[in-house]
Specification:
176 residues; mainly alpha; 2 domains; 6 helices; 66% helix; globular
């Protein structure tokens, strides 16, 4: 089998694409507005997460380079054929593409609906996708987690997060 048809080669290609995306995303954090009198800036958390992603992507890249251009054993799992990425035959790929679409919706509606509302909607959709069917659990998790995270970032870390249509909730918290 050709090395270009193995999982190791597909990992190599994915690592290169991810590094390009992560580099672009890190560059974009420099355009975030600086908040005066805020200890943690809006770009801090994305930068920390991106640095972590870059580290693990570099590890994947190095492992893939060693396997593709070095010697790979016959029984190495990365020496097996790479699965097809056709979304019509591979439900995992279709689900991943749907999650990417949800992320695009998240960024589009972030300012309009606000962090808490759009996060709750997308969290509920993803929980349903992964097989959670208990409506009470879905509602509690998808509502409480974004609310608690917003409260932590807004009140404790003083990061100004858009509330959209839930602006009255923010005003209420400010009065407390």
């Amino acid at each position: 089998m050709k090395k270009t048809q193995t999982k190791a080669f597909s990992n190599l290609v994915c690592a290169i694409i991810l590094l390009i995306f992560e580099g672009w995303a890190y560059y974009e954090t420099y355009s975030f507005k600086v908040q005066k009198k805020a200890y943690v800036q809006p770009a801090t958390f994305p930068r920390v997460m991106l640095i972590g992603m870059i580290v693990f992507t570099l590890i994947l890249l190095i492992q893939s380079l060693i396997k593709v251009f070095g010697t790979m054993k016959e029984n190495d799992p990365d020496n097996s054929p790479a699965p097809p990425i056709n979304p019509f035959t591979n439900k995992g790929v279709l689900a991943a593409l749907f999650v990417v679409l949800l992320c695009c919706c998240f960024t589009f509606f972030f300012e309009k609906l606000g962090y808490v509302l759009i996060s709750a909607i997308i969290c509920a959709i993803i929980m349903w996708m992964v097989g959670k069917r208990d409506i009470l659990v879905i509602l509690l998790v998808s509502i409480l987690v974004p609310l608690v995270l917003w409260f932590v970032f807004y009140k404790l870390l003083t990061v100004n997060i858009p509330m959209g249509v839930l602006q009255p909730l923010r005003d209420l918290v400010d009065k407390i």
